[in-house]
Each structure stands twice: as structure tokens, then as C-alpha cells.
């Protein structure tokens, strides 16, 4: 009888925790390494003009098996303009309307994104990685988190500047991903790789510090009405957006002369 009572109490506590932790708002500090390689005369001088990292804040709202990720505009660093050796470099930030919506039950995502004054709605399914639990734990914002690691084979655009001429080429890339998630908050939300882990992602390291997220604030209250699928923009697939973006980047390079633009976020 005592065992039955204890089991019933544990089950009731689990239901209470489950009910309390199905919604919330979490803020992450994000740090991105600026990876631009310069060669030729004056390359070192130009490289010294650029910051080594850029930092901003990202918020994630989650409830009803859905999540919404967006940049906190009040925390975005000013857009930077750097000049030297006949080269002008502009570092831009994500737009105020850029959001990523996830529906975990339907395993789909919609990203609203602005690029070159045009708005897009990029629809895709939630891609699953082969995550492995390492057994390591650490505390983040008072929550005990488990470590999970994964690899993602992808492609990225490598940019080099040689004597004032920018070159871009697509190269293969393997991302080593380390995530720390909180089982006490059993929602598959996070700043990236949403819908894949059995708990809220509290910290994330992509490629040994290339991009790092760290939770700095968590609240169980959230504006549920704000978590809705974006509707404003041209509807495209992820591959269609990649092709359009590449075409526009090439046009910007041809028309921009010695100006380069790098978009953060």
C-alpha cells in the first residue's frame, strides 16, 4: 500500500511539473565568430578593422507544442561599416520581422526572412540529427542539463578577399554540435535544432565556438498569442531560397564594386 501511495504521489508530482513547464520564454546570448579570410597586399590591415566576434540576444517563446524564435532588436549591436585599402565592408543584422516558427506535433517549420529588401516564407520539415547522450551534466540557470552531441554534414559559402577582390565558393563542412538540454522542461524548443531533444536547450555550441548560445533568462510566463505561424512573404522551399539568395549575392557583388555585405543572424 505504501508503495502504491508513493507511486501515485510521484505520478502526481510529475504531472504538476509537466503542466507547469509546457510554456515559457527564454532569452539566449549568442556569440558568432566573424570568419573572413584576407590575402594579398593590405589583407592584414583590412582584417584588423573587423571585429572578431559579434554578440546579440535571441528569444524563444514556446507553448501548445509550438515555438517562435526571434532576435531581440533592442539588444542587437549597431550595424558596422569598416573601410580600408579601397574596400568597404558592411556588417548587417537580421531584420525585425525575421522569425522562425516550429510546430513540433506536425514536425514542420516556417521561417520568415528578409533578404535584399524582399521577404520570404521558407517552409521545411524538422530535420532530425543522430544525437548521442554523453552522460555529462551541468547546471544552467538553476536547471540540471544533460549533454548531447551530434554532427551535421552540410555546405557553407567560403569567402576570401585577395587584393580587393572578393571570391566566394561553396565548400563541404562538418558541424560538431554540443547541446545542453533540461529534462525538467520537457519541450523540444531551443535557439536552433528545435524539435529534436526531449527538453529545452539551455546552451548550444556549434563547431567549437563558431556560434555559441547561452541561456541568460527564463520565465514560465509567455504571451501565447505571439506564438503564431508567420504569413508575410514569398513562399519558397529551403532549396529555392538558397538559389535565390545566391543569385542576389552575385548581383550585389557585380554592382557593389569594392563593397561587401555580411549578414548576421
Describe the structure using short key phrases.
single chain, 17% helix, 16 strands, 3 helices, disordered N terminus, 3-stranded mixed beta sheet, 265 residues, 13-stranded mixed beta sheet, alpha+beta
Description:
The structure is a single chain. This protein is of the alpha+beta class. It is 17% helix and 51% strand. The strands form two sheets. Strands 1, 2, 3, 4, 7, 8, 9, 10, 11, 12, 13, 14 and 15 form a 13-stranded mixed sheet that branches. Strands 5-6-16 form a three-stranded mixed sheet. A hairpin with a 4-residue loop joins strand 13 and strand 14. The chain is globular, with a radius of gyration of 21 Å. The relative contact order is 0.21.
Summarize the entry for a quick read.
The chain has 265 residues and is an alpha+beta fold.
Q: Given the C-alpha coordinates, what overall shape results?
A: globular
Distance between the termini: 57 Å
Instruction: Please give the count of helices.
Output: 3
Q: Note the beta-strand portion.
A: over 45%
As a whole number of angstroms, the C-alpha radius of gyration is: 21 Å
Number of separate strands: 16
Topology:
Blueprint: H1 2-20, E1 24-33, E2 37-39, H2 43-49, E3 53-63, E4 66-71, E5 80-84, E6 87-93, E7 99-103, E8 108-115, E9 118-125, E10 132-140, E11 143-162, E12 165-182, E13 200-206, E14 211-219, E15 234-237, H3 238-256, E16 259-264
Amino acid at each position: 500500500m505504501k508503495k502504491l501511495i508513493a507511486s501515485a504521489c510521484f505520478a502526481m508530482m510529475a504531472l504538476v511539473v509537466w503542466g507547469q513547464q509546457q510554456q515559457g520564454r527564454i532569452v539566449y546570448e549568442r556569440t558568432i565568430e566573424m570568419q573572413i579570410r584576407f590575402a594579398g597586399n593590405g589583407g592584414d590591415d583590412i582584417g584588423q578593422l573587423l571585429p572578431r566576434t559579434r554578440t546579440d540576444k535571441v528569444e524563444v517563446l514556446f507553448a501548445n507544442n509550438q515555438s517562435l524564435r526571434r532576435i531581440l532588436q533592442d539588444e542587437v549591436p549597431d550595424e558596422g561599416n569598416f573601410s580600408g585599402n579601397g574596400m568597404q565592408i558592411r556588417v548587417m543584422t537580421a531584420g525585425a520581422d525575421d522569425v522562425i516558427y516550429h510546430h513540433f506535433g506536425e514536425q514542420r517549420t516556417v521561417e520568415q526572412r528578409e533578404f535584399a529588401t524582399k521577404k520570404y516564407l521558407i517552409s521545411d520539415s524538422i530535420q532530425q540529427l543522430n544525437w548521442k547522450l554523453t552522460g555529462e551534466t551541468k547546471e544552467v540557470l538553476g536547471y540540471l542539463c544533460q549533454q548531447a552531441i551530434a554532427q551535421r554534414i552540410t555546405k557553407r559559402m567560403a569567402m576570401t578577399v585577395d587584393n580587393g577582390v572578393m571570391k566566394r565558393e561553396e565548400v563541404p563542412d562538418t558541424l560538431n554540435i554540443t547541446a545542453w538540454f533540461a529534462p525538467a522542461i520537457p519541450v523540444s524548443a531551443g535557439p536552433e535544432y528545435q524539435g529534436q531533444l526531449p527538453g529545452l536547450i539551455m546552451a548550444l555550441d556549434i563547431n567549437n565556438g563558431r556560434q555559441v548560445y547561452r541561456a541568460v533568462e527564463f520565465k514560465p510566463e509567455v504571451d501565447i498569442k505571439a506564438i503564431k505561424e508567420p504569413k508575410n512573404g514569398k513562399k519558397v522551399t529551403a532549396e529555392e531560397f538558397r538559389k535565390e539568395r545566391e543569385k542576389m549575392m552575385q548581383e550585389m557583388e557585380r554592382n557593389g564594386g569594392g563593397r561587401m555585405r555580411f549578414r548576421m543572424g
